[in-house]
Amino acid sequence: xxxxxxxxxxxxNRSDQQSAxxxxxxxxxxxxxxxxxxxxxxxxxxxxxxxxxxxxxxxFNPDGTEVGMCGNGARCVALWAKxxxxxxxxxxxxxxxxxxxxxxxxxxxxVSLKMSDPKDxxxxxxxxxxxxxxKVNYINTGVxxxxxxxxxxxxxxxxRLGRAIRYHPEFQPEGTNADFVKVINSNVIKIRTYERGVxxxxxxxxxxxxxxxxxxxxxxxxxxxxxxxxxxxxRLKVYFDISCNPIRDVYLEGDAKFICEGKxxxx
Length: 267
Description:
Blueprint: E1 2-3, E2 6-12, H1 25-32, E3 43-48, E4 55-60, E5 66-67, H2 71-84, E6 91-96, E7 99-107, E8 110-114, E9 119-129, E10 132-140, E11 144-149, H3 158-166, E12 177-185, E13 188-195, E14 200-202, H4 206-218, E15 226-229, E16 235-241, E17 248-255
Parallel strand pairs: 2-3, 4-6, 11-12, 13-15
Antiparallel strand pairs: 1-2, 3-4, 4-5, 6-7, 7-8, 8-17, 9-10, 10-11, 12-13, 13-14, 15-16, 16-17
C-alpha cells in the first residue's frame, strides 16, 4: 500500500499471532524492505487483534527496528480495515504504541487520521552540527522530529545533515527524524525528511508533515490548515487547534491506496 508517497508492506497477522512470524518480524522487515532484492518498502505494517480498537498496528522500519507510530502507515491501515474487515464502518480505531488513533475513510482513496497529542515541543534552540550552529525545533508527534527551516530546500544536503541530526548526542539513545522545511506562504510549506530507521530520505513522512506543520504555526510562520508538499509531490493536509496548550485535535489527511496483493517467498 502507499500513502502520500510512503510505501508499505501490510501483513494481516490477526489470526496467527503465536506463529513463528510473530517472533521474526524484525528480520522479516530487514529482508522484504530491500529494494531491488525483495518487494521493497519504507516499512512493514503488521496488523494484529486488538482488545480496545478495530485493529492493532505494529510498525517495523527497514532496519528492523520497531517504532510506535507512522502517520501515513496508519492511514493505509484505515483504508485496509474499511476494505477487508467485514461490516467495518468508515470510521476506524487503530491501536498503536503511541495510543489509540481515530481514522476516517472519506472516499475510496482519501483518509483522515486523528493523531495523538504532540509532546515535548522545543522551539528555536541551538544545535552544533558538523561544526555549524543551527537553530532548530523539536517535537514528538508519536515519534521524535527535529524541524529545521531553510531558504533553499533543493540545495539542502538532506542525507549528510539529516544523518548528523538523527545521531546527534542531544537526541540519544533513540535518535530522531530530521525535517527540512521551506515556508511558501501562511498555509503552504514544502518538506524533505530524513527518516530514522530507513536511514535515508523518503518521499514523504506523515508524522514529519504533522511536526513541520505544528512547528511552523507555533513559530508564527503559518496557520492551520497547513498544506504540506512532500518530496514525492503529494500534498498532505495538517490541521489542529493551535489555541490549546498543548496543541490538540491534530489531523493528517491525504491519499492512500492499494498497490498489489500477493505472497512473499521469504528466506
